[in-house]
Amino acid sequence: MQAWLLYSVISLILWGMWGVILKYSNNFYNTVTTYYLSTIGSFATATVLTLIMKNDFNANPLKHMQYPLVAGFFGTLGYWFMVKALEQGKASIVITVTAVYPIITLALSILILSEKLTLTQIIGILMAVLGIVLMST
């Protein structure tokens, strides 16, 4: 198995667990508290990973730091609205619907990064969209 695929599968499993635990948290906390506490968990994990990986911030000039900062901004807002949706909706539906965010990534990757898709990939994307439509009805 290629490393990127292994990492993707691990991410899939972790995010699957994350969605259920986040929804369960809504039994005890409102959106603001759930969001805040999970963000603390995210920051703590990111800090530990940075220390373990011995990240050398001096190796990369900070002149391009606006990109990860803007990505964090959009990711945080997306996460906020997903937590809010979980407060009111079923985890099985909310997580599935929000999980098709790669379609937005795909469109922007084609427009901004000039990435190309094969016919098989296009068919897969259409099937994913159909799945979301069927799940949300």
Automatic annotation (TrEMBL):
Question: SUPFAM superfamilies attached here?
Answer: Multidrug resistance efflux transporter EmrE
Top-level lineage group:
Archaea
TM region(s), chain numbering: 6-22, 34-53, 65-81, 93-113, 119-136
Q: Which part of the chain is the EamA domain?
A: 3-137
Name the keywords, alphabetized.
Membrane, Transmembrane, Transmembrane helix
Q: Which Pfam families does UniProt cross-reference here?
A: EamA
Which interval of the chain is the signal sequence?
Answer: none
Cellular component GO terms, alphabetical: membrane
Tell me the protein's name. Answer: EamA domain-containing protein
Q: Give the originating organism.
A: Thermosphaera aggregans (strain DSM 11486 / M11TL)
